[in-house]
Amino acid sequence: MKLSLMFEMSVDRGVNSVTEAAEDATSGVRMRHPNVTIDQSQVTYERNLCLKASRSAAKGVITHRRNEAREMMSDFGNPYDIERKLVQLDEVITGFEAAHQVYHNQLDDQNEIEDSLEYYEVTMLLASDSKRIIEDWI
After folding, report:
1. 18, 41, 49, 69: which could form a disulfide with 85 (CB 3.0–4.6 Å)?
2. Concatenated DSSP letters for 78-95?
3. DSSP code, position 56
4. Number of domains in the chain
5. How many other C-beta atoms can be found within 10 angstroms of the C-beta atom of residue 102?
6. Is residue 74 part of a domain?
7. Would you tell me the crossing angle of helices 79-105 and 40-74 to the nearest 10 degrees?
8. Quick check: helix, strand or coil at residue 73?
9. Is residue 24 part of a domain?
10. CB 82 within 8 A of CB 137
11. Residue 15 lies in a domain
């Protein structure tokens, strides 16, 4: 017990002496570090990845709502409940469109722009087909 207390005291003294030495060397002023240049292309790339992931998540919500509605229809659920699912599907489609627009507006590369448009068109085609099926069922 005494040995560990003595060790802790010696460690504390060592830390204090190092801190005091650093303050003496800089006269109590914190040392400045050179600025790091931010790579704008890397920042743009990271932002686009986040926006793309957000758009993908919004598409996942569309798929989830569509599957819920289809399950309710296969179980011959209440038409009123399925109408509510249709409204929810419309809301998440609007969310997807917004997420897509934010992501798409950030793109500069022509191949990425074309891929983004194709992704949007396929997603919207599936969503509109699902809406039509639900509306026909109701």
Report:
1. 69
2. -HHHHHHHHHHHHHHHHH
3. H
4. 1
5. 12
6. yes
7. 170
8. helix
9. no
10. yes
11. no
Give the model's pLDDT for residue 73.
83
Rounded alpha-carbon distances, angstroms, from residue 116 to 7, 76, 108, 122: 62, 37, 11, 10
What digits encode the pLDDT tens for the residues 61-106? 999 999 988 888 888 878 888 889 899 999 999 999 999 999 999 9
Alpha carbon 104 to chain centroid, angstroms: 15
pTM of the model: 0.67
Q: Which domain holds residue 120?
A: 39-137
Secondary structure (3-state) at 120:
helix
Q: Residue 46 falls within a domain, yes or no?
A: yes
C-alpha pair distances (Å), 1 with each of 9, 13, 121, 138: 13, 19, 72, 78
Contact call for residues 123 and 71 (beta carbons, < 8 A): no
Structure-token pair, residue 44: 């743009």
In whole angstroms, give the CA distance from residue 79 to residue 137. 8
Angle, helices 110-137/40-74, rounded to nearest 10 degrees: 20
